[in-house]
Amino acid sequence: MIRNAAVEDLDALVAIENRCFESDRISRRNFRYLLTKANAATFLDEVQGTVRGYAMLLFHAGTSLARLYSYAVDPPFRRQGLGEELVRAAEQLALAHDCVSLRLEVRRDNQASLRLFEKSGYRYLEMVPDYYEDHADALRFEKMLAPHLQQELARVPYYQQTLDFTCGPATLMMAMKALRPELELDRKLELRIWRESTTVFMTSGHGGCGPYGLALSAFKRNFDVEVFVNDDGALFINSVRDPEKRVVISLVQEDFVEELKGLPVKLVYGALNISDLQAKMEEGGIPLVLISSYRMYQEKFPHWVVITGYDERYVYVHDPYVDSSAGKTLTDCICLPILKQDFQRMARYGKTGQKAVVIIRARPTPSTSRH
């Protein structure tokens, strides 16, 4: 019988974990956290008081993505179809949480699990070198739980921000790489773009990047750019208390805007809705969107994501921030499905509801003619 796990099942879960895995074991402390505090769900198979296996899902707040974080079948009960039952239960639970996609990692040398997931319709995504404690490689898989949804996805490679304040540069780098595949993405470029586009940098903290600075950085690298903001006021200024910092933010933004107005960059004071963003993508643009992080991380800070596609219900985004302290991996941050109405609410920041979008396009190569 499949049922939800509880704290009272800790002994059984830890015992199965220790019998099934030689490394990368979930500790008793982590099991307790995952059962009681994490955005997770754990269920187990039990017959006549004997726990035969378990599976654990992690959910990504604010998105419609679930991840099969761990599953195990006690050795005496293997080859009885229990693994397939646990995977089906995981899929049903993910759907019950309105998740459209289920992702997971499997050891490259775990042939039994690989056969199970391939048989169950999971699509191979990529290999992850040196993923486990013993340096074994992992293979990532995904299954669309709503296969009727036809995704229109851009081929946007993923780049993880390396610092807390470089989400803007990371999203710009992803968009530029999609349009110019030969572009090399590295930390030097990430920091260079941050220096070019940040609004304030003082000894008490590092500043984030606004739409105007990101637009300038993209234009200087030979991309066509459009900028949409819902008003001409200084962004992020209401979250800064120090009067001198507020002055610096305003002056830097004024300088960015003045420079942009002297360039062939489209600057519009108005907001884009989901339909507008889709239209921009259909025209070859890749949108960088400013969001409030609260719905995803329960902390209020401005955050940039890049849209990678859409279908009739969802917007898909790359989130450059990987919250490893919460057990997240790249799997949890690539092509995140977000309900369109949720993304519309998410795409604003602060009490004044500031909105900003930067659209990046490949710049047409000038044609030459012979006379």
Would you kindly provide a brief summary of this structure?
This protein has 371 residues and is an alpha+beta fold. It has eleven helices and 17 strands.
Give an overview of the whole structure.
This protein has 371 residues and is of the alpha+beta class. The protein folds into 2 domains: 2-148, Aminopeptidase (3-Layer(aba) Sandwich); 153-362, Cysteine proteinases (Cathepsin B, Chain A). 32% of the residues lie in helices and 27% in strands. The protein is built from 11 helices and 17 strands. The protein has helices spanning 10-20, 28-36, 82-96, 111-119, 167-179, 187-197, 211-220, 243-261, 274-282, 294-297, 340-346, and strands at residues 2-4, 40-47, 50-59, 65-73, 101-107, 123-128, 138-144, 152-153, 201-202, 205-206, 223-229, 266-269, 286-292, 302-310, 314-318, 336-339, 356-362. Strands 8, 11, 12, 13, 14, 15, 16 and 17 form an 8-stranded mixed β-sheet that branches. It has a 7-stranded mixed β-sheet with strand order 1-2-3-4-5-7-6. Strands 9-10 form a two-stranded antiparallel ribbon. Helix 7 (211-220) runs parallel beside helix 8 (243-261). The protein is elongated and about 75 Å long. The N and C termini lie far apart (81 Å).
